[in-house]
Design a protein that fits this description.
Strand content: under 5%
Number of strands: 0
Oligomer: single chain
Structural class: mainly alpha
Distance between the termini: 43 Å
Helix content: over 70%
Order of helices and strands: HHHHHHHHH
Shape: elongated
Radius of gyration: 21 Å
């Protein structure tokens, strides 16, 4: 008869401890995201984060060294997964205008369906580099593809990327504040396509195409 050796207790204990650490870190990130969405990034104190997570004040420094570090973690958890999903969605698309439009529409729809996420992005804003570091290279990549393929007519990629971000944050703020959600994603994508040189009638057609769901990543 074959017997299976039991898992050493030290290994099992280590696994439980790691899971607890991950759960505690996630509680801190969730609490920080909620508070920052409600008040703005710079208006939230570290003690408020631990209080909201129902943890001791000193617990914070077991996982993060500063406010900037937890902001980076919140941005990573909140935005990077969306960016990866959009990368997967558009990986095999050929038309740069469709890639640009679909990506922008998904960001707007994410804010509409998850207002807490939307307010966090708005209040994180362009003043904090984490948002630019996560989505900036993706936006610049899509714009460059449009220029290289002759689809877009813009004089400068960096300026166009900044315009995209500024318009995106302003639109999210408008949608969340006024709840003008009907076709907001399509209208925003159509406007931005016109900005990069796509003719108005074509921009409207591209922006109103059926939007594929984001794949899980």
């Amino acid at each position: 008869m074959t017997t299976t050796d039991p898992i050493p207790s030290t290994t099992a204990a280590g696994g439980r401890q790691q899971r607890r650490r991950e759960q505690t870190r996630a509680r801190l990130i969730d609490a920080a995201r909620t508070l920052m969405a409600e008040r703005g990034v710079d208006a939230v104190g570290l003690t408020e984060i631990t209080d909201a997570a129902d943890l001791g004040a000193g617990t914070f420094y077991n996982y993060f060294q500063s406010r900037d570090e937890i902001v980076e973690a919140v941005a990573e958890a909140s935005v990077e997964s969306l960016g990866q999903s959009m990368d997967a969605l558009t990986a095999n698309m050929e038309d740069a205008a469709e890639i640009y439009a679909f990506s922008l529409r998904h960001v707007v729809l994410k804010a509409i369906t998850d207002p807490l996420w939307g307010w966090f992005v708005v209040r994180l804003g362009v003043a904090h580099p984490q948002l630019i570091e996560i989505l900036g290279p993706r936006a610049a990549r899509d714009l460059r593809k449009g220029v290289d393929s002759g689809r877009f007519s813009i004089p400068d990629i960096d300026v166009a990327t900044s315009c995209t971000f500024g318009a995106l944050l302003a639109t999210l703020h408008l949608v969340l504040s006024t709840k003008t959600e009907a076709h907001a994603d399509e209208l925003f994508a159509q406007t931005m396509l016109c900005m990069v040189g796509v003719p108005a009638i074509e921009a409207q057609e591209i922006a109103s195409r059926p939007l594929p769901a984001l794949p899980e990543v």
